[in-house]
């Protein structure tokens, strides 16, 4: 049990929190930037233009079928080099999470938009609303309700997937943990258990509230 | 352009990697299905205490990343005396992660069987076991199949993370070859192709099953 | 001889006898039924009518054992099979033995065949599993029943390939094959498209002619009038009017409640008749 004392070493806990901050920051930026990308993708997916449809379909299917880790490698080692980008590991992570989050959110948006019955559009038309007014006052409020629970779930998934950043060499919470373990290898041989345990807990503490929110939204709006 | 001779030379590496990915995935998914079945049964039967334990497990499993679960299993637990091989850790990790997803899909399937189907069975004189075996479970399977297939795809994808505990799966091969040969594009190309070969058929099967079983949802 | 199995006025033995039935939901302020009593003689048809929310379906469900009762008794062929217990609102479906359950055949409003079985499988499942009858014999009888409802050629169709009217006819066969003492029909045409109502009701009329005991809840007044041997009007937790003479009930109801209820249907009928006359006059011109 004395391995637990590694957590009480000066600087250890603050450093882990700093690492967690990097994780949360990457996730937050990715989620925020996914939103506009996702809304545009969702709108594109509802278009009837066959070229747009096929492109969006291939994009979504490719993103969905590839492991996120493979996508990270493709972005970091492939795209960055091919286009001569000076993309660091953090940048590659954010890029992948935006492309991935955008595609998934796009599909959610498409589903939400298409789930609104045609009669809602028709009623708005008969009431004399313009297309834009109909979208803002009739369609969007209903779509958002259907969209939000899934989006919060997606955010949880993005936070969890941020853990993969360590495999590209980003210094986030797991990397910090590994550094702490290495530095205290002789003083605390069982420190590994405690440090990874704490990281495990940290992820849970970040993700769990998001899950609860998603669940509450689902329940509240299930019957609308 | 891609260097085809490289691809020819190193294709066997990816075949080996694919076998490792499939090996870990098959056992991990099997463990996940068993775990899911137990959890769904406990939840449906409303067994006290166990039910709360299942709820806690599902929250933990769904709200932590597989990579951290694996590090904990592979590097952390040996300090308590539980020493497992990397393969074992990977399978347990996938099973631990996938169990909650499978449980959710199965429970959703059981709940989606309309109450009136049970009432019909009651009126026809079926006992509890007959109702479950002949009415509820066949319909629940139809309803949960698309979700279970989606979980299978998800778990195979997640299995790419096991490269982080030095298991030579597809991901590991690509990373290794990039390090050794610097032929980045070819390695990435092979990485994509290998995953497509593994996952596309399952994905197509999933879509087909979903369409086929659609009647059960009506 | 107890009160519950006295033959009725015409001498027929009583199949189903309900006495002082009281039904209450846990969260409700009022009882759904406050001690209602009625009999269904063997081979006769009792039709229950009443406004929406009067508890017609609940009545059928309590008799079927799907919901517990809080007072009164239900007797089948003179034997009391259930006695109400106050406070059992949430106890779920009544624990009845398999053979007792199969004595009540039920067809629900929403057509609910088992989607995982074909038509024949739906019909033969219960006799084989519950009554342990032989497959060949059960299948032969199932095909005979299907023939009676004009569906012999659909024996191997899946439920989702059938129309609503066809599904309801299969559901009737599924209930009949168990040879129930009484058939409970809960608004079996309410969810159907109008053009399918007839094909289902026709089957029910044939069953009545063949002497099948039935308890029917329906909104189809002309059907009720044609098929009923007895009628009860359910309203506000009680029986507002009962009649052994359906023709009189539908043409000259005694109580104000029945007049009001039937008037709401008459209004529609008169309007339709008037529209028809006008249309005819227009054609004649």
UniProtKB/TrEMBL annotation, chain A:
Biological source species: Bifidobacterium criceti
InterPro entries associated with the record: AA_ABC_transptr_permease_3TM, ArtM/GltK/GlnP/TcyL/YhdX-like, MetI-like, MetI-like_sf
Endpoints of the signal sequence: none
Protein name, per record: Amino acid ABC transporter permease
Membrane topology label: Multi-pass membrane protein
Biological processes, Gene Ontology terms: amino acid transport
Matching PANTHER family: ABC TRANSPORTER MEMBRANE-SPANNING PERMEASE-GLUTAMINE TRANSPORT, MEMBRANE COMPONENT OF AMINO ACID ABC TRANSPORTER
SUPFAM superfamilies xrefs: MetI-like (SSF161098)
NCBIfam families hit by this protein: HEQRo_perm_3TM (TIGR01726)
Domain ABC transmembrane type-1, first and last residues per copy: 20-214
Residues passing through the membrane, by range: 20-46, 58-79, 193-217
Compartment(s) where it occurs, according to its Swiss-Prot or TrEMBL record: Cell membrane
GO MF annotations in UniProt: transmembrane transporter activity
GO CC terms in record: ATP-binding cassette (ABC) transporter complex
UniProtKB/TrEMBL annotation, chain B:
Superkingdom of source: Bacteria
GO molecular function, one term: transmembrane transporter activity
Record bears the keyword Ion transport: no
Keywords annotated in UniProt: Amino-acid transport, Cell membrane, Membrane, Transmembrane, Transmembrane helix, Transport
Membrane topology type: Multi-pass membrane protein
Keyword Cell membrane: yes
CDD domains assigned to the protein according to its UniProt record, in alphabetical order: TM_PBP2 (cd06261)
Span of domain ABC transmembrane type-1: 18-206
Primary location: membrane
GO cellular component term of the entry, any: ATP-binding cassette (ABC) transporter complex
Transmembrane segments: 20-42, 54-75, 81-103, 188-209
Alphabetical list of InterPro entries matching this protein: AA_ABC_transptr_permease_3TM, ArtM/GltK/GlnP/TcyL/YhdX-like, MetI-like, MetI-like_sf
SUPFAM superfamilies: MetI-like
One example of a Gene Ontology biological process annotation: amino acid transport
Family: Belongs to the binding-protein-dependent transport system permease family. HisMQ subfamily.
Protein name as catalogued: Polar amino acid ABC transporter permease
Species of the source: Bifidobacterium criceti
UniProtKB/TrEMBL annotation, chain C:
Domain called ABC transporter: residue spans: 16-261
Annotated SMART domains: AAA
Gene3D superfamilies assigned to the protein according to its UniProt record, in alphabetical order: P-loop containing nucleotide triphosphate hydrolases
Pfam families: ABC_tran
A GO term, aspect molecular function: ABC-type amino acid transporter activity
Highest rank taxon of the organism: Bacteria
Keyword set, alphabetical order: ATP-binding, Nucleotide-binding, Transport
SUPFAM superfamilies recorded: P-loop containing nucleoside triphosphate hydrolases
PANTHER family cross-referenced by the UniProt entry: AMINO ACID IMPORT ATP-BINDING PROTEIN, PHOSPHONATES IMPORT ATP-BINDING PROTEIN PHNC
Similarity comment: family membership: Belongs to the ABC transporter superfamily.
Protein name: Glutamine ABC transporter ATP-binding protein
Naturally occurring in which organism (per UniProt): Bifidobacterium criceti
Organism taxonomic ancestry: Bacteria, Bacillati, Actinomycetota, Actinomycetes, Bifidobacteriales
